[in-house]
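Input record (one chain):
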Amino acid sequence: MTYRGDAEVDVLIVGGGPVGLTARVLLERWGVRTLLVDKRRELSPFPRSRLVNTRSMEIFRGLGLADRITAEAFGPEFGRIRFRDTLYDSDFASAAIVGVDAPIPESPVLGVVTSQDRLEPVLLAAARSTVRFGSELVGLAEETDAVLASLADREQGTRSEFRARYVLAADGANSTVRQRLGITTSGPGAIAEVATVVFDAELGDWCAAQPAGFYVTAHGGFLPLYPEGGWAWTDPVEDTGSGDWAALVSRALGPAADVRPEVLRAQRWTVRAFVADRFRHGRVLLAGDAAHTVPPAGGMGMNAGLADAHNLCWKLAGVLRGWAGPDLLDTYEPERQPVARRTLRQAVANTQLMFQAQRRRHEQLRAGQSASEVIELPWSERYFAQLGLVLGVAYDSAAVLADKGARPDEPDPGTDYTPTTEPGHRMPHLWLAPERSTLDAAGEWFTLLTADPAHWEPHIAGPWPLRVEPLPKEHTETCALGLHGALLVRPDGHIAARWPGGSPGAAALRQALGAVTGRPPA
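The corresponding structure, as predicted from the sequence alone:
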């Protein structure tokens, strides 16, 4: 089929996982025409990613989806990782997932433990734009002002072509788009072959008193899938022999479990660890696992991808709607690629600490120590919080106007998070009113937070979407502002500029918006 004039969209999204589906919702909010395609015939039936962290839930809160996602998820008591010799033994170590197991003052939301196959239907239903499952990208050609994509439906034996102003590639670790563009990656690469088996069995009695989102045992990991029931077992597997998955799971459970699992489905997959050397190739931008794939320990991979989409979609909208220059898209890679690299390092560190706990336990057992003895944790209770990486990310690009003589701080290495209004950082959570956070003030617009709106409103003019949000005077000191000061917050909730004492001139706000968006004021 040749190109038709009606086969044209603003953004072609390749990949229907959580990142692609979230990008579709975000772009629809901006009025951007999208088409999402995925070579699979339907959403994945496997649980896959398990953790929606605090920052991701903040994004979903802004989209009005947080309550629906929470309703499908486990309660906060499941926000813990437990280490046991077998599933039915006592813990020999455990760690809370901070920001999931209990509320934290740094955020208005609570992260959740849920399965990806429960999250994706919520995201799919949250937008109306066209989705085409069973459509595989088989060709990609960049033109001066668009990208021409060739799609094939293998089952129907048909082909079609679409012209898109931009392509957002969220098509996973084995990204067809990344490979077609010849974008290389850096990192360990493939590090393990793993099996995941979804099964039913009566195991609740072993875990009801000590719930967790993940039980790590010497015979693999066990994950409760849904509040109403269901389990998954995952472990490196070199050879499944006859393919008797039920026998493998039974052996992992051990004879004391006295259950025969009913296997529903099984999958082998490769644990990969890499970061793409480029996140952009002309009008094509990579996000999620297509741009960075990390080991699952700590549940950071999907969440990093959701942050990619949140960072990128407002920029695409600005360029497509004309209130931002095309150079704004150049800020995506320098903002998100360093975060991806830190996320990879943190995930590898998580994996090493989990293995360290298991090794210590094996040493205890060899020494004849009781299985009920709890070992000293090789991490602090805050280690799996990772709030410095989840909430403390700082961007340094042309889309951030650093305070004079300053540069955005590097985020904390992983655990500790200190709220700050330094430009480049996420706007700290403060209550503006009951149930209304400073984070709720961000949306499909820039936000000017100030205790003195009358001082700034005469300076508001230009093509940029902008709202003024009154800041309670009791928060000015916390925000490092005087009574006439202001914070300019980007649509993704990160601070673009700060004026501690007030406007330095009538044109300051317009000049800042022009610099951040790459469209100088007329």
